[in-house]
Structure formats: structure tokens, C-alpha cells
Design brief:
The complex is a heterodimer. Chain A is an alpha+beta fold. Chain A folds into three domains: about 110 residues, Alpha-Beta Plaits (2-Layer Sandwich); about 70 residues, no CATH class; about 200 residues, no CATH class. The two termini of chain A are about 30 Å apart. Chain B is an alpha+beta fold. Helix content of chain B is about 30%, strand content about 15%. Classes of the chains: A alpha+beta, B alpha+beta. At the A-B interface, helix 5, helix 12, helix 14 and helix 15 of A face helix 13 and helix 15 of B.
Chain lengths: ~425, ~450
């Protein structure tokens, strides 16, 4: 059995903004000070959630949206039912237009599905590792370490497999075995082959499109104004900085308009498709193109569906949600140092991004401009919740591996590695 | 390679003045009369101690301003506005990033620290003379001068007993040549007006057409109290628990948490005992962690020097790592204060004498330099794959410390907080040309 890690993003127009803000603030505080009679929604009451956020995307022209980001385990239907069962969910969502309430389950599911937008690209640092298993394994690792600390002298005298056996005995049997069957991630060869086969069939067509595309890219990049010369070092709004005082994990919500016209939409969609496939097929070992600090991230294209607006004036937006380790400064540093090409390929199609060459180069490498641009389009996130607030990506991966190896027979080299990880 | 305009740069940038062992730091709040303050600065500008880098033994001086200090000199708000955010905020407001508790500070809590004068002299008497002179000048200019911050005589070791300043980045164009195996970094990482490690000219504050930042830098001043007794008694206790001899065991553990032995010899190369010859040799910096010690079996991952400069261990491959790490290096110009204490005395319980370090760091970006190192590398309990272990020396204290060993790790019981920030500030260290501009009277306004 393979437990997939999935994403859900809901975007709904807001009708009662003042109440919504108050209620979202109440979640963060853990209680609703003003209306104690009703239940307050609590993210931890939705099982199998890794990360969750609510953010209000303000826009005078397009109308304010509530965005709800969920990262979860298992099948969609099953998870939606868990969401619907969470106390207090109505109190949040009833502030949005056309909300039917959870009492009518069918209507509720329809409303969620009508407002969901599938991510154009989704990244998970530990795909297929359910939250329940992570929580279990963090507990196992803590017990292993406690045991080693208490009995180190005795254990050090023993051969590796005997240390492993005694440690296995010392750990609570409930924690010892995984709560879900272990299954390593499998390379989905079929999917990749299908893409390649498709590419071969459509190669001639592809070549024509590529020539058009490249010519259009040169024209667009030549005419692009880019970001203005920074007058001063990177400045951050106080409200954003105040949210980033967390040492271990932080979040980023970033919303920016995609440059108008078919060419940019075509390019960004294609790039995100490619990055989406890469993220699900290749970047499954805890790093996204060299960035090691992201737990979950996604890009969502929110289309402007207003009626009677000419195509060229439509404001399609790119929304980016990220859940990462450490400080903003180090996260942005990793972007620039290790993944500038990929990120430039995405964001150079959006407004105000630093001037880019051939889709991949310059752009994000322009450190001060890129950081200021990121800050300028970053939003204050009203509610953010992490299911593993104390752990980095590396901690999660280490501890899951530690627990998975606990019952296994390891060779000498693996055993040394395993023992060193405790 | 662009050479720095050295005649225009304050001497402290390229000289730690180790030959002038007596340092003092004079903090002042400037008066309300900007014209008087500018007159004071004009007099300072011609002072040989600020301009003359060549004569030995003569006292040397450096001057730096907080954002409030520039305001007090009459710099217009429009110019102040373009200063780095962290400079305008000041150190106290960055407490979350730095892990500080400003309500407990003794320096810079009750007073606005507008200006800091850094004074270096060959003898105590000379220092007292210079200090009295500048104190009088500031008072005459209407400034309120705060208590003396007097460093103890310069020694190569900091109070915990370890050689200090072993690894400084080499800045081409500022230093003549690198010490053996020092990693060169771009001049723009230290001085404004030059290309940095991103091959970019960073934004520099301008006053009209005049580039106020060029050849200047930002100075971080922190008064850090060191509880030497607390560190060594804890280590001695832990050594005994591990069945080691009290003093030798404590020193071994001390080397493990610091990452260098008292002599400065890197634990990565000298895993078992101190090696003063190695420390004095050209090889004191000739090592990489991934190359010599990937799992930290010699130099623990959580050790102070491995975090403060991760060298090749920050990324998957050494080259990427060095490139990344070079974007977060600073020049350190620290001096100690308080009477030194030996490791043996400290193991025996120490004494009540206040002592510590005046940490002084220079960087072209405080956010990407000093603050990044403090927050992301030292303060971060999840750095380099660690779990719940902040820096044992410069961290918040109370964290266990893992010493990788085969077959099983040794974990020290939580180390108490041994370094406490007592205050400080962020300052702009201008070029000499910029000092002249700051000291100039504005032209009379047309009615």
C-alpha cells in the first residue's frame, strides 16, 4: 500500500472579512475570546495533515479571496470527510460567498471542489511518508536517543547487531512498528516513458512551437523593464518580519500577477508542468533542485475569470505557498545559491521580476532586486499550522529512516551509519 | 580584482591594531545642536589618529555612527530612509533574530548610542590620555558621554582560553596577501562600493550625488559577558561522568564544543590532543570538514567553529558550499575585557570578576553577514541536520551537545548559557570622504 501525500488549495471570495480576520486570529491564539459558545476550528483536529494555512489575498480590483492550503495523506474523498468533520470549520468558511455549511455534506463537497484549484506544481520533501508515521518515528528516535544516553557504557561493549537488538527491546512496542505499511517510493517509469513517447510523436510539431517560442522569448525579454535599480538594501514590512520570528520553521505566501498575454501564460504553465514532474519523479529525496529546507511547496495559477474584460487586461496570478526550515534570509539565500535557474524560469513570467536572459539566467541571481521583489509580493499569512513544528526536513528523514531500519538486518557499513544517526 | 581606495578607508577595516594592545570604546549621545556636532566631527576628521595609518605606536582611532547619530549630525531624513533596515531598527529591535533580551542590557538600553569612538593605544597611560581628550571634545560639542568600555590588554586568547581570530576571511584589495589557506572573498562583502560575492554592486546610501556608503562598511558592536566558570565546571562535571580525568577530560570536551584546541589547532586535524605546532603552522586553516571529517567524528557538527564557518560542509559538494559560505563571512575585530582567568582556575569554579568580549564585526550587509551567522548558523537548533542543538558557546544555552563517536554518540547534558549579550549597537563606519561630507555645514538656504 502506498499512501500518497496530496495537496488541496481552495480559493473562495470573501463576504464577511472582519469576522473572518477575527476568527482566523482566534485559531492562532487557540481560542475565540469573543464568542466562546461556538467551537473554534483547530488544525490539529484534522488528522493526517502535515501543514495548513489560511491567508487573505487582498485585491481591490479582483476582490478579496480566502486561500486555504492543505498538505495531507491519503485519498481526497477520505480527507475531505475528515475536514468536514472538524469542529468549527463552518465558522471560518461561512465568511465566504455561497458557502453551504457542512450539514449538507454533498453540497459541501461540491463547494470545496468548485473552489479548489489544482497546483500547477507541488513538491514534498518526504513523499509517501504519512504524518502519523512521522510522529511515531520522532517518538521512536527520541526513545532510542534516551536509551543510548542512559546505557551507553553497557551498549558500547557490544557488537552492532546486539546493540540494535537491545535498542529494539527498549523501545515501546507500540512505537516500534510502523503504523502504516512501509513502502519505499517507486519511480513511476510509466509516466516518464509516456512523456518521452509523446514527445517523439509530436517532435516535428514541437520543433515549430520551439522556434516560435524562442523568437517570442527574445522579443519579450528585450522589451521587459525588469525590476528598478534598488535605492536601498532589502526592506521588509514589519507585519511580515513579525511572523518570521520562529527559529525552526517558517512559511511564505507570495502572490504576483503573471505578465499579460498568451506567451507568458503558455511559458509559465509549461515550466510549472516540467517542474511538477521533476518534483514528483526526481526530487523525492528531500531536496528541490538543491534546496534542502522545503517541507512542502506549491505553485498555483489563479486565473482571472471576470466577464467582459479583454484578454490582454486579465490579471492571472501566480500563488506560491512554501513551508520551510530556518530563516527567510537563509531560505532566499538557498534560492539564489542553488536553484536560481529553475526559479527564474518560473517567476520571470511574472510582473516586476528582475531582468532575465534566456528564461534561466540573471533574474534571481540579482540578489538585492530578487529579495526586494519577493518581499514586495509577499503576503501576511493569517493562520499557519505545522504538524511537525520541531523538526527540520533532515530531522524527519533521519528519524523515519532510523525507525525503518530498527527491525532490519543491516550489513556492517549500514550498521555503522545507522548507529551514527542515533 | 579591484583594489580598495585604502587612503579613504578607516584603518580598522584592514588593521586589527594588534600592536596597540590597549583599546577603549567611547559611546556618546550627540547634542541637539547639529552644527556643534559637525564642528566636533570636522576636528576629528583632521586628527592624525584617524588618518595616519603608517606611524607605529601612535594611537589610532575609528569612528562609526548609528542611524540616530547621522540624524543628529543633520543628515536629511531622505538619506536616512535609504540606510539598511537593520541599521535603522538598531540592534535592540532585532532581538528575535539575535536571541537577545534587551530589557537586561546595560549598554545601549537607557541611552541612545549615536556614535562610537574606537580607540587603540600602545600603553594604558596613552589610552587614558586619548580617552580624556575625546571625552572632553564630545562634551564640549554638547554630547552626553557614557561610561568607559575598557578592553583588557590584547592577548591572542579569549577568556574561555582559546586562541581567537584563527580564521578570518581574506579580502583582496584590503589585505596584502592571504594567510595560508584563508579563503578569499570579494571586497564588496566588506566594503560598500565594490562588487560582492554575487558579482553585484550592493545598494549604497547616497546623499544627493554623493555616495555616502562608498569605502565604508557597517560595524556591529556587542558587549558579551562570558561565564567562564560555568562553562568549565560543567565540562569538568561531564568529563567525570564519562569516566575521564577531570582537567584533561574537560579540556578535551572544551576542544570538542569549540572545534579548536586552546592553542587554536583545529580538532578536525588534531582529534586527540592539542597541537600548538599545528596551530602556529601554515596548516591551521588547511582543512575542510567534508574532506577530513564528514560525520564529525573529530570535530562535532554542533561545534562553535564548524557552525560559524562551515567551510565545505554546507552543501552537497565542497565547491558549492564554499561559494555559499563566502556570502556570509565577516571581519572580526573583537577585544576582551576583564581580568583573564586560567582554565584550571575556571574548572575550580571561577570567580565573580565580570569579563567578556567586545565583539566587533565588519560587513557590507549586517542582514546577510552578522545576523545571518548568528541566526541561521549559530542560533538555529536544526543547522546541518542537527536536532535541538543550538551553538554551545553563542547560542541561548540549555541545549545538549552531541559528540559523534563510534559505535554510539556521546551526548553532553544541556550546557548552561555561557555568553550573555549586555548590549551594543549597529553602526555605519564611513569612509574619510564621507566623514568630511557629514561634517560639512549645509549651504545656507535661499529664502
Amino acid at each position: 500500500m502506498w499512501t500518497a501525500t496530496r495537496e488541496l488549495s481552495v480559493f473562495a471570495p470573501i463576504v464577511k472579512e472582519r469576522e473572518l480576520r477575527k476568527r482566523l486570529a482566534a485559531i492562532e491564539l487557540g481560542l475565540d475570546k469573543h464568542e466562546t459558545k461556538t467551537e473554534v476550528f483547530a488544525p490539529e483536529q484534522v488528522p493526517d495533515t502535515h501543514f495548513m494555512r489560511f491567508v487573505i489575498i487582498e485585491d481591490a480590483e479582483l476582490g478579496d479571496l480566502l486561500a486555504w492550503e492543505l498538505n495531507y495523506d491519503g485519498a481526497e474523498d477520505v480527507y475531505l470527510a475528515k475536514l468536514a468533520a472538524a469542529p468549527g470549520i463552518d465558522r471560518i468558511l461561512e465568511c465566504c460567498a455561497g458557502y453551504p455549511g457542512v450539514a449538507d455534506r454533498e453540497a459541501w463537497f461540491d463547494w470545496i471542489r468548485a473552489h479548489r484549484i489544482r497546483a500547477a506544481a507541488f513538491y514534498v520533501a518526504y513523499p509517501g511518508v504519512p504524518r502519523r508515521e512521522i510522529v511515531n518515528d520522532l517518538g521512536v528516535a527520541a526513545e532510542l536517543r534516551k536509551t543510548v544516553d542512559a546505557r551507553r557504557a553497557e551498549l558500547c561493549e557490544l557488537p552492532g547487531h546486539e546493540i540494535q537488538r537491545r535498542l529494539r527491546e527498549a523501545v515501546d512496542p507500540k512505537l516500534r512498528t510502523s503504523v502504516v505499511p512501509d513502502e519505499e517510493w517507486r519511480f513511476q517509469l510509466g509516466q516518464v516513458l509516456a512523456v518521452i513517447a509523446g514527445a517523439i510523436v509530436f517532435l516535428p510539431l514541437l520543433a515549430i512551437v520551439a522556434v516560435w517560442w524562442f523568437w517570442a522569448l527574445l522579443v519579450h525579454e528585450h522589451d521587459d523593464a525588469g525590476a528598478p535599480e534598488p535605492k536601498r538594501p532589502v526592506h521588509t514590512k514589519k507585519e511580515l518580519a513579525a511572523l518570521e520570528d520562529k527559529v525552526r520553521q517558517n512559511q511564505l505566501t507570495h502572490v504576483v500577477d503573471i505578465k499579460p498575454g498568451f506567451f507568458r501564460m503558455f511559458t509559465i504553465w509549461t515550466v510549472l508542468q516540467v517542474i511538477g514532474v521533476m518534483a514528483s519523479q526526481f526530487y523525492v529525496n528531500g531536496h528541490l533542485g538543491g534546496i534542502t529546507s522545503i517541507h512542502f511547496a506549491r505553485w498555483v495559477i489563479v486565473r482571472d475569470r471576470r466577464k467582459g474584460i479583454p484578454r490582454a487586461q486579465r490579471r492571472h496570478r501566480l500563488v506560491f505557498f512554501s513551508n520551510y526550515d530556518g530563516s527567510w534570509e537563509s531560505y532566499l539565500g538557498e534560492f539564489i545559491d542553488r536553484a536560481s535557474e529553475g526559479l527564474t524560469a518560473i517567476w520571470s513570467n511574472t510582473q516586476g521580476f528582475p531582468k532575465t536572459r534566456f528564461l534561466l539566467w540573471a533574474g534571481a541571481r540579482d540578489e538585492e532586486r530578487f529579495k526586494q521583489w519577493t518581499r514586495d509580493h509577499q503576503l501576511v499569512t493569517q493562520m499557519w499550522w505545522s504538524g511537525v513544528p520541531e523538526s527540520t526536513v533532515q530531522n524527519v528523514r533521519d528519524d523515519v529512516w532510523l525507525r525503518r531500519c530498527l527491525p532490519m538486518t543491516l550489513d556492517d557499513q549500514e550498521m555503522t551509519r545507522w548507529l551514527r544517526r542515533i | 580584482m579591484v583594489a580598495a581606495d585604502l587612503k579613504n578607508v578607516q584603518g580598522l577595516v584592514y588593521n586589527g591594531y594588534k600592536k596597540l594592545p590597549f583599546a577603549a570604546f567611547l559611546f556618546a549621545t550627540l547634542g541637539d545642536d547639529a552644527a556643534l556636532s559637525r564642528a566636533w566631527l570636522r576636528a576629528l576628521w583632521v586628527a592624525p589618529a584617524l588618518r595616519d595609518h603608517l606611524t607605529r605606536n601612535e594611537p589610532k582611532l575609528a569612528v562609526a555612527f548609528a542611524a540616530s547619530g547621522l540624524r543628529a549630525l543633520g543628515v536629511p531624513e531622505g538619506v536616512i530612509e535609504d540606510l539598511p533596515q537593520e541599521l535603522k531598527d538598531g540592534m535592540a529591535k532585532r532581538d528575535k533574530v539575535l536571541g537577545d533580551t534587551p530589557s537586561e542590557w546595560t549598554l545601549g538600553r537607557h541611552h541612545r548610542l549615536d556614535v562610537v569612538l574606537l580607540i587603540y593605544a600602545a600603553s594604558e597611560t596613552k589610552r587614558a590620555e586619548v580617552l580624556a581628550d575625546h571625552r572632553a571634545r564630545l562634551v564640549a560639542a554638547g554630547a552626553q558621554v557614557h561610561g568607559d568600555e575598557l578592553a583588557c590588554e590584547f592577548a591572542e586568547r579569549e577568556h574561555f582560553g582559546f586562541a581567537d581570530g584563527m580564521s578570518q576571511p581574506f579580502v583582496p584589495g584590503v589585505h596584502d596577501q592571504p594567510r595560508a589557506h584563508e579563503h578569499p572573498i570579494a571586497l564588496g562583502e566588506i566594503l560598500l562600493g565594490y562588487e560582492n560575492e554575487y558579482a553585484k554592486l550592493p545598494a549604497s546610501p547616497r546623499w544627493g550625488e554623493f555616495d555616502l556608503g562608498a569605502n565604508g562598511t557597517y560595524l556591529v558592536f556587542r558587549k558579551l559577558a562570558q561565564n567562564v566558570g560555568a562553562l568549565w565546571t560543567h565540562l569538568a562535571q561531564q568529563a567525570e561522568k564519562l569516566g575521564l580525568e577531570r582537567e584533561a577530560g574537560a579540556i578535551w570536551l572544551g576542544a570538542k564544543i569549540m572545534g579548536r584546541w586552546p592553542s587554536g589547532a583545529p580538532v578536525a586535524l588534531a582529534p586527540h590532543q592539542d597541537d600548538p605546532k599545528l596551530a602556529a603552522s601554515n596548516h591551521a586553516n588547511n582543512f575542510g570538514y567534508i574532506a577530513h571529517d564528514p560525520d564529525g567524528l573529530h570535530c562535532p557538527i554542533a561545534s562553535h567553529v564548524r557552525r560559524a564557518n562551515p567551510r565545505d560542509a554546507r552543501a552537497e559538494d565542497a565547491e558549492t558550499s564554499l561559494k555559499v559560505v563566502n556570502r556570509h563571512r565577516i571581519l572580526r575585530r573583537g577585544r576582551s575585557y576583564g581580568r583573564p582567568i586560567s582554565i584550571q582556575q575556571a574548572i575550580a569554579g571561577g570567580d565573580a570578576t565580570p569579563r567578556g568580549l567586545y565583539f566587533i564585526g565588519l560587513n557590507a550587509s549586517i542582514a546577510r553577514g552578522f545576523e545571518f551567522i548568528q541566526q541561521t548558523w549559530l542560533g538555529n537548533p536544526g543547522f546541518l541536520g542537527l536536532a535541538g542543538e543550538a551553538d554551545p558557546i553563542a547560542g541561548p544555552g540549555g541545549c545538549p551537545f552531541t559528540i559523534p563517536a563510534d559505535p554510539l554518540h556521546i551526548r553532553l547534558e544541556p550546557i548552561p548559557r555561557v555568553v550573555t549579550t549586555l548590549g551594543g549597537g549597529y553602526f555605519f563606519l564611513p569612509s574619510l570622504a564621507a566623514i568630511a561630507r557629514l561634517a560639512t555645514e549645509p549651504p545656507p538656504r535661499n529664502p
